[in-house]
Amino acid sequence: MKQKRYNVAVVGATGAVGTEMLRVLAEHRFPVKGIRLLASARSAGKRIPFNGSTHTVEALSGRSFTGIDVALFSAGAGRSLEFAPEAVRRGALVVDNSSAFRMHEEVPLVVPEVNPHALRRHEGIIANPNCSTILLLLPLAPLHRAAGIKRIVVSTYQSVSGAGAKAMYQLWKETKDAMGRLGPLARWPVGPFPSNRLTGSTGKTGQPVLPAQIAFNVIPQVDAFLENRSTKEEMKMIHETRKILEAPDLPVSATCVRVPVFVAHSEAVWVETERPLSVADARRILRTSPGVRVVDKPAAGGYPLPLDAAGQDDVLVGRIRKDESVRNGLVLWVSGDNLRKGAATNAVQIAELLFGGEVAKWRGGKVRKASW
Amino acid sequence: MKQKRYNVAVVGATGAVGTEMLRVLAEHRFPVKGIRLLASARSAGKRIPFNGSTHTVEALSGRSFTGIDVALFSAGAGRSLEFAPEAVRRGALVVDNSSAFRMHEEVPLVVPEVNPHALRRHEGIIANPNCSTILLLLPLAPLHRAAGIKRIVVSTYQSVSGAGAKAMYQLWKETKDAMGRLGPLARWPVGPFPSNRLTGSTGKTGQPVLPAQIAFNVIPQVDAFLENRSTKEEMKMIHETRKILEAPDLPVSATCVRVPVFVAHSEAVWVETERPLSVADARRILRTSPGVRVVDKPAAGGYPLPLDAAGQDDVLVGRIRKDESVRNGLVLWVSGDNLRKGAATNAVQIAELLFGGEVAKWRGGKVRKASW
Question: Can you list the domains of chain A with their CATH numbers?
Answer without folding.
Answer: 6-100+344-355 (3.40.50.720), 133-163+217-338 (3.30.360.10)
